[in-house]
Amino acid sequence: KRRRGGALSGGQQQQLTTVRALVIQPGLLILDEPGEGAPLIEEGGLTGLLVEQKLPFARQYFDRFAIFGRGWRVDEGDISELSDELIKKHRKV
Fold first, then answer.
1. pTM for this prediction
2. CA angle at residue 52 from 66 to 68, to 5 degrees?
3. How far is CA 92 from the centre of its chain?
4. Contact between residue 65 and residue 76 where contact means Cβ atoms under 8 Å apart
5. 20 neighbors 5 (Cβ within 8 angstroms)
6. pLDDT tens for the chain, residues 1 to 93
7. β-sheet bridge partners, residue 72
8. Distance of alpha carbon 37 from its chain centroid, rounded?
9. Which end of the chain is more exposed for a tag (fewer CB within 10 A), N or C?
């Protein structure tokens, strides 16, 4: 509580940045690999763009997915449709 943002660990700084963004009630929250320690809203109403390699984390917090390859959206759908096979299919794209 008394430490400045620059004195926090990297993970704590990322959490602080996320919380600061949520205070202004954005319509879109963009997160780059927040990891499991990031504070996320579990209620509806917030659109999030998540860049994440940990699929269990993404599946827990998001309803839909899109896979991009070389700057193009190559697949998208309901998060329940996001399988390891689908990811392997697009890994080389």
1. 0.64
2. 30
3. 22
4. yes
5. no
6. 677 777 888 778 878 888 888 888 888 888 887 765 555 656 567 788 888 877 887 888 788 899 888 889 999 999 999 988 898 888 864
7. 69
8. 11
9. N
